[in-house]
Fold this protein.
Amino acid sequence: MKENNISNSKPCFIRVLWCDNANIIRAKAVRVDEIKDQEVSVGISRAQQGVPVMYDGVVAGCGLDPVGEINLKGDMSTLTPIPYAPGHARVMGDMFHEGKVWDNCPRGFLKKMITAIQEEGLNVKAAFENEFYLLKPDDEKRDNKNGRNNKKNINGVSIKPSEFTSFASTYSMDLNQHIISDIVEALIAQNIVVQQYYPESGPGQHEITIMYSDALSAADNQIVYRETVKAIASKHGLKASFIPKIFPDTAGNGCHLHLSLWQDDENILHDSKADYGLSEVGEQFIAGILYHLPSLAAITTPIPRSYRRIRPQMWSGAFQVWGFNNREAAIRVIREDDGRILHFEVKTVDASANPYLALGVVISAGLDGIRKKMELPHPIQKDPANLSAAEMEEMGVKLLPSSLKEALANLKKDKVILDALGEGLSRSYLAVKSAEYEALGKLSSEREVDLLLEKY
Ligand code: GLU
Ligand code: MG
């Protein structure tokens, strides 16, 4: 038996995290005597990258089986004590196999894409802009489910919004002040810079925005953010959920991805003299992302419910268009009041997406735009849903995929994105998502929400 040097006095743990193809955040925790930046690693099965959201088993066709071990090595530069879990700290894990980054590692994939864009002399900075609901048990529906109340047993979803206020309502701010402050305090304690907060338009829906950072930290921050919001809400007796569409008639949860392009320490998106005010490389980068959106969807909006959110006139970017300050365009280029362009957002992203994979494929699409010197079509400065069929035809405006099935079919044909992901990751990802599509498609909407509630 291996000896360890732990004094056995404290329940001190470092959690080594990974986020799998199904976007479940997982960890194995290593017992330590004190939290300092000692090397930590744990073994996990290769099969972990073949596990779908529905159950802990391996899906067919993923190319992985429960034979063979992966070394999940903590990236000690990410070591953070977890403020809401005393005695626990977290590190992001990188998957290694035979001493090399495993080709199925989502974090390894994002690092590869960051290196690829750096080889063009560029850096991407990013932030995920989350929306989430605070929910409480719906006792009436739960009682019905359990056969009480003498009413018909229904498979009703057993949660409802924690309150019923509206967009930016100050009353909502007051009702939720203690929870939001606890979330923000915990985010700050984990070195995340919080910028804005407001109640979003769905009842019980909130948005807390955070500062952009380098691409790898942005994806790491997304993990910290999701964990923190869910953990703090549960301490207040509520459930927080990032599921892209929870209730059919209220706003969806977006997770818009904000991006900017840098050379050395300079943001190079803007060029006041150029067409559209975008630098040549900035335009190419955005054009590449716009072009690949129909297949990126399989990774950035990766669960069947994602497509209940992406609908015209829901501010979620249902059309494959870009525009300046157009909240119905899938790519919204943000032009400041003084004309400068510092960043843009991709709206067709939600927090059921693995942030490493989502950001990685978006970078690979932008890179394709740069390599092929793609040009942007005209910006759309109207709500595309109000265009006539003839106008849509003339302007080349198309709807983005309306189902995961369609998005997966697009991804299977997109050689650029598949090549970027590499053989192992494309195969396991497509197998996991196809299995999820089949299984979740058989559930009623309420059962699907029940199943996903603890996951996202
Ligand atoms: N809730 C919208 C979405 O699903 C976004 C609203 C907004 O623009 O913030 O993407
Ligand atoms: Mg919002």
In short: The chain has a mean pLDDT of 93. Residues 131, 200, 207 surround magnesium ion (ligand 2) (CB under 6 Å).
